[in-house]
Amino acid sequence: MAEHHTASDCKHKASSNAGGSVSGNGRHSSPAGCGGSGGGLSGGLTQPAGWQSLLSFTILFLAWLAGFSSRLFAVIRFESIIHEFDPWFNYRSTHHLSTNGFYEFLNWFDERAWYPLGRIVGGTVYPGLMVTAGLIHYILNLLHVTVHIRDVCVFLAPVFSGLTAVSTFLLTRELWNQGAGLLAACFIAIVPGYISRSVAGSFDNEGIAIFALQFTYYLWVKSVKTGSVFWTIGCCLSYFYMVSAWGGYVFIINLIPLHVFVLLLMQRFSRRLYIAYSTFYIVGLVLSMQIPFVGFQPIRTSEHMAAAGVFALLQAYAFLQYLKDRLTRQEFQTLFFLGVSLAAGVVFLTVIYLTYTGEYAKIHIPIIASVSEHQPTTWVSFFFDLHILVCTFPAGLWFCIKNINDERVFVALYAISAVYFAGVMVRLMLTLTPVVCMLSAIAFSSVFEHYLGDDMKRENPPAEDSSDEDDKRNQGNLYDKAGKVRKHVSEQDRPEEGLGPNIKSIVTMLMLMLLMMFAVHCTWVTSNAYSSPSVVLASYNHDGSRNILDDFREAYYWLRQNTDEHARVMSWWDYGYQIAGMANRTTLVDNNTWNNSHIALVGKAMSSNESAAYEIMKSLDVDYVLIIFGGVIGYSGDDINKFLWMVRIAEGEHPKDIRESDYFTPQGEFRVDKAGSPTLLNCLMYKMSYYRFGEMQLDFRTPPGFDRTRNAEIGNKDIRLKHLEEAFTSEHWLVRIYRVKKQENRQALDHKLRNIAAKQKYTSKKVLPSRFH
Amino acid sequence: MWSGGAAIFVLVSCVFCASALADGLVNEDVKRTLDLSSHLAKITAEIQLANHGAARVNSLTLALEAELAPHLAFIGASVKGEEEEDEGLELKETTLHGQSGKFFEAQLPSSLAPGAKLRVKVETVFSHVLKPFPSHITQAEQQLVVFQGNHYLYSPYPTRSQTTRVRLASKTVESYTKLGNPTKSEESIEYGPFKDVPPFSQDDMKIHYENNTPFLTISSITRTIEVSHWGNIAVEETIDLRHTGAYLKGPFSRYDYQRQSDSGISSVKSFKTILPASAQDVYYRDEIGNISTSHLQVLDDSVEVEIRPRFPLFGGWKTHYIIGYNLPSYEYLYNLGDQYALKMRLVDHIYDDQVIDQLTVKLILPEGARNIHVDTPYPISRSQDELHYTYLDTFGRPVLVATKNNLVEQHIQDVVVHYNFNKILMLQEPLLVVGAFYILFFTVIIYVRLDFSITKDPAAEVRMKVASITEQVLTLVNKRLGLYRHMDEVVNRYKQSRDTGALNSGRKTLEAEHRTLTNDITALQTRLKAEGSDLAEKVGEIQKLDRLEGQGHFPLATSLTFCFPGQLFSATRLLIGNLDSLLSSVETKGLFLLTSPDTSKHLSISSLHTLSLLILSTFSILHFSINYLPSTCQSGT
């Protein structure tokens, strides 16, 4: 075992083994190239260390720069603005943190969310992101660099993508060699799968969490390799940062025990592993429990049990190892080992099974399914997000498995589990991306090692020491005279002589082409798919000029300026964070979908008829109702298109009042035109969306009230609202806000004219009983 | 309620004191114009004054009704000379015993002799005197406002004859007071002439008419002017805007607003702000980002921004925005040695007929400005100076803060700030940056050079020593290889030119160099041996090999047999092969050099492609940016 250790140690430390095979060529070409270019590189020979670090520094710096700048499309095209939905909450809490201080933030009770429940933000949030941004803002301001907190938030993710590239470089260097590390850094800097979550303005947990993830893995690999407590403590701190940043830390706390477990199964137990894991588990556990939102979960919930089990197993195994020195009954030992490992394995697998299948099933309610990023991943999106890397990464995995050692076991497990999770949920593509980059970099690096420097091979095949497995043997041979080596290697190299210079250059060219196409694809995807703030929409005219549809901000800002400060706004939960962030008004439900019944109540109000909805809105103290309507400009993500989810969620909680089937035609279609179901045509959402839309003729080819999103003439054109009135509609009708009318003053009835009083009585009759009950 | 009339002021010449008004001046002929066509009441009176007293008159008194006085935004008086030029009068507020209202005393440029006449023009502007009535209207309704004022000129002097002309915003008038049978034409009402009106007479005038002009009020504005001696003046205005007309009652229907031209007629869709001609980098934004609904037009003498709030402003609605721009400092900053003078507008144009309820001006001067002295065009209250810290500041920039309420267009005037500034201080910030980088690099140098490890590792030290010696050996061996190559060249040249002399001399020098190199290597070899490394043997092997090669080739070259360059080349290759073995042995012994050329070579292969990848991606990003940047530039603000 010890022997093996040194061998492997030699391998990773030096980037030598794989490098070694090529390095034979490499060394030749250097002087030759040097002579050829008139000593241009001779400096590199006299001081290789300087050149090497300069080169890697430059490449990493450029990778950082490329990663940073490719994430700026949205800022260049639009402005420095927070994107999407969740980032608005993060921005709002960061703003709170930076204005009120850290403790105030931890104790923050947000009365503007989940009316009337409120939300304890400090205890229900992963604070890492806010604290990071707040700290950067604080330090900058301390240095009198007066940057607005918004700009810190907007540019945080692009800056951290550079750190991710650096940590990916470090990790890949540990796994393979420096060249592969640099390639991996470049890949991760521009790969769309990661950019999708880290463009400028996307101020979300994932932006910093991927850095924390990669860095934790790097430190873990480092601590397994060195067995040093120093590295392990570093790993724990990084893990702590990860826990504070993202719920995805569960991935780490399962993958590392899995790594340890598999190493045990492979009989690769070592003191280094024991030190690393024991320290990591204890310190990491204690640190992770410091985050208020995590609390006691690490010792209570099933997804953390695997780590505990492996910890116990490792102790038992180490104890057995200790006994092995003392006892001689080897059969007993092996039996014992088998028994223990089997038991632990069974426990581990059940836990894993429970965690990832059982729990998903348990929480498989409409609200989870309604989130688009929780859908299973399609093959297209794999290619879209990773492009050529998705094809090359199995090759890298193969290289790793072929030359297995402790840390390559880790990366293999990482790859396999990440592929599984990415298949389950689109969102988890994010955890797959880094490992794909690393393994693809290894694959590319190996290919380049193999196919570059071909002229050397041709000129001087003797000095070649070939493929990896023969490393040791060659090393032995190299002690001998040169002549001997020549004979030996040329024998061995015969099959490779078929690879003429042409094939080599063709392969190299192909690889380069792939990389170029990859770069082009990444830029294209980033530019077209992931760089829209989604708060601001843009449309292009025939002449290429651009129209900005700023309806969201128009309406939110109207709410902010012209409604009462404590007005309560009801909307579907998607817009909760944006309303809180941009309009600064109280919302009923928001994107932190923790209370399904509350959301269902809002869904019920939206899908009931107006008077039933009015009762619900009254009980919830609603002042304004906000909906998104895309019928005028053909915006497909509007509330009518999401409406079925509202119905489903409402049905889940109120099956007696709301039935999904009522909203379909007898043929089972969801239609908004005349053929649509009467329930749909009279529900609140429909009425609010199409209020006065029936009069509107958008162009001469279509009848009035033609909905461009659903390409149908609406079925109910004569919509009258009794309890609501239009308060605001944005320029392109994208956002419509309705005011909930207050109840008439009872005392006033006596003084009014009789005929008006009679009219009023009709409404008040309904209200009256409920008052007295 | 108010009982007074329209805003009127009176000039009276008074020989010695205000109390002796009765026997002083007389308003011979007064022409008043009440301009009510906007949301302001602009009252202009042209007064023909005559001194019917016995003494010369040096000053005159202007009076305002008590009801209108609190709304006064601006008052100005000028004497109409013989020529067209008007001469402004300086006004000072005074009080008159036993009379209500507000009084101003104006010093005449030259005293008025008894019997002499003088034409004086008095301009006043009142804000918030047009009250919407009804106060709440629906989207479809027109906005009606009521003006209450005085039919007569409010004056401490008797008036012989006067006429009053009222300009309205529209033809529609609900009602108006009918004193003396006024004549109403299209958009104006003519009152008078009234004869022999006693001093301080008031008679209620009330006009209820349609006025759909934008009733925009700036409820507060903070204007920040930041002066940089590097050539830039940054101006930023934070504006709270409110529609102070009739409140919107009931729903706001976008459909009606879009389809019917007279729907929401009193609402404000957009307005124009005129910025200085040299304004650059204009931005228009609010808390939630850029406001995309604006247009910028650069004219010859100004920059016009068409500002559209995010939403149309109806009665009672408000909005808030920030507009900012940069100005070149050479147009506004003057200096003589260390003395500087900044001449800027205290408040600038925001929209026509603007009303500012509250203005705060913050003037940020460069760090180190001393002896600050401010000349304002009109009285303005100064608050405590503040300090402002921004990029690379150490002890803060002085900030002058001043506030004033109720301002109108007439207040757009220049303020002059004088201060001293030592030019050496300009170097402070660049030096700060240089110093910071110096410290950074120095720290890195120190960190890299020093050993901070707690424990000593003798093995590692030996390893490093051996590594460095090996490196030196490698360098020397490489140099020697270079010599061989050189020899090749010399031989080749000889083969072409057949010049034995050149060959011999080349050979001699090369041989000499070769010898010294070989000696050096041998010296290093002994040092390696001293370190106890078996690498010494390897070096010995190389030396042996080299001797063989040298013997093989140098004589060959000299004896003019065909020197096979390829052969020589292969020999050198062989040597390098040996070097390889040397290095591999270094690796196997655990004496791996991170610095070995092998990794650097390997690195350069991968990095070559990485670099190309990077360049490519940067290129494509640039490509896209170039495609899209023009469009962002076009949109302006």
From TrEMBL, chain A:
One of its GO terms (cellular component) is oligosaccharyltransferase complex. One of its GO terms (molecular function) is dolichyl-diphosphooligosaccharide-protein glycotransferase activity. The chain crosses the membrane at residues 54-76, 120-140, 152-172, 178-196, 246-266, 273-293, 305-323, 335-356, 379-401, 408-426. Residues 15-26 have a biased composition (Low complexity). GO terms for biological process: post-translational protein modification; protein N-linked glycosylation via asparagine. Belongs to the STT3 family. Residues 55-439 form the Oligosaccharyl transferase STT3 N-terminal domain. InterPro entries: Oligo_trans_STT3, STT3-PglB_core, STT3_N. The keyword Signal does not apply. This is Dolichyl-diphosphooligosaccharide--protein glycosyltransferase subunit STT3B. Keywords: Endoplasmic reticulum, Glycoprotein, Glycosyltransferase, Magnesium, Manganese, Membrane, Metal-binding, Transferase, Transmembrane, Transmembrane helix. The keyword Lipid metabolism does not apply. It is found in: Endoplasmic reticulum membrane.
UniProtKB/TrEMBL annotation, chain B:
Keywords: Endoplasmic reticulum, Membrane, Signal, Transmembrane, Transmembrane helix. One of its GO terms (cellular component) is oligosaccharyltransferase complex. It comes from the Eukaryota. It is found in: Endoplasmic reticulum membrane. InterPro entries: Ribophorin_I. Pathway: Protein modification; protein glycosylation. It is a single-pass type I membrane protein. Residues 1-22 form the signal peptide. One of its GO terms (biological process) is protein N-linked glycosylation via asparagine. The keyword Heme does not apply. Its main location: endoplasmic reticulum. The chain crosses the membrane at residues 430-448. Component of the oligosaccharyltransferase (OST) complex. OST exists in two different complex forms which contain common core subunits RPN1, RPN2, OST48, OST4, DAD1 and TMEM258, either STT3A or STT3B as catalytic subunits, and form-specific accessory subunits. STT3A complex assembly occurs through the formation of 3 subcomplexes. Subcomplex 1 contains RPN1 and TMEM258, subcomplex 2 contains the STT3A-specific subunits STT3A, DC2/OSTC, and KCP2 as well as the core subunit OST4, and subcomplex 3 contains RPN2, DAD1, and OST48. Subunit of the oligosaccharyl transferase (OST) complex that catalyzes the initial transfer of a defined glycan (Glc(3)Man(9)GlcNAc(2) in eukaryotes) from the lipid carrier dolichol-pyrophosphate to an asparagine residue within an Asn-X-Ser/Thr consensus motif in nascent polypeptide chains, the first step in protein N-glycosylation. N-glycosylation occurs cotranslationally and the complex associates with the Sec61 complex at the channel-forming translocon complex that mediates protein translocation across the endoplasmic reticulum (ER). All subunits are required for a maximal enzyme activity. Belongs to the OST1 family. This is Dolichyl-diphosphooligosaccharide--protein glycosyltransferase subunit 1. It comes from Cyprinus carpio carpio. The lineage of its organism: Eukaryota, Metazoa, Chordata, Craniata, Vertebrata.
